[in-house]
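To: structure desk
From: M.T.
Subject: fold request, one chain
Message: Could you run this one when you get a chance? Sequence is below, nothing fancy, just the single chain.
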Amino acid sequence: MKNKKRKLKKLLITISAIGVFVLGGVFTFFHTNVFAKQRDLWVQTAMSTSNHKWLATTFLSSEEIEAILAKYTVVNSENSDSASVKIQTAVSTSSSNTTTSVVGETSLKEISGSTYQGYVVTVKDPSKVSLTTNLDSLNQGQLVSETLAETASIQAIVNAGGFDFNRQSDSSVSTINSGIIQDGQLIYGSAEEETQWIGMSKEGKLILGTYTFKDALAAGIDDAIEFGPYLLINGEDQIENEETGGLQPRTAIGQSSDGTIFLVVIEGRSTSSAGASLYDLQEIMKDLGVINAANLDGGGSSELFYEGNLINDLSNGSERAVTTVFTVAK
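Reply: Done. Structure tokens follow.
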């Protein structure tokens, strides 16, 4: 009987010790600066998700979370200079006609970093890249696979801007919630308010800047979405801290000085690829020689189809209807 009491006592002491150790570790992680960078990365990652915010809110007050997020807010104060992009062309002769075409083809390659795996689509001819709405007959977002089924002219396609996403019992609905310019017309948003645009000109130049609708057109924008933040502006870094944005599935677009467009999609929320921070995206773009780059919608929306095939692993395991896309023509 005494032996049983001793064993029970030892068990209770062990459990208590483990409990103290765990609670002490949780307190140290979340409420001291010993692991400040790791804590901030954790909080940003959790708060960027739809379903896992509790991983931060369980341990920190709303005021503490807001203070952490505020530290990593990206403020883009400059606009891109489209004159710095010189689209490279070559002259070819066919019979008596002289035509101008952009040198190079479209290609796909894998990339990886310490926390992520992903893909880059390189488009040498920027005139092949289009930014367009992706809406069904009800003016709601549709699946990218449905878009591909409607046309055979697309070589690559990625998601673009944000939207309102409402889950229903047996389906989900995606609706426009931010500015869109299509073919020089304001589809959604305010014409008077200054908006942070990610746009394309008719010549295929990526134009990043905060403009009213009128000024956006004057800057050369023909199609655009309201989103961000920008990663690189005129070759200058826009993201200072490695933890900014947390680790997430990502989609981004960039352009080098010769006009080449790069579409980047990063897998995330899996054991093989946790995801990339905004700083990671910036560094990827710099390694590609990009001078202007912007973050696009990520998370469960990040997807890349290439030559009709889904390339990346979707973080939610299935497609999400999106309202805007970047496409690359064959």
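Reply (cont.): The chain has a mean pLDDT of 89. Let me know if you need anything else for the meeting.
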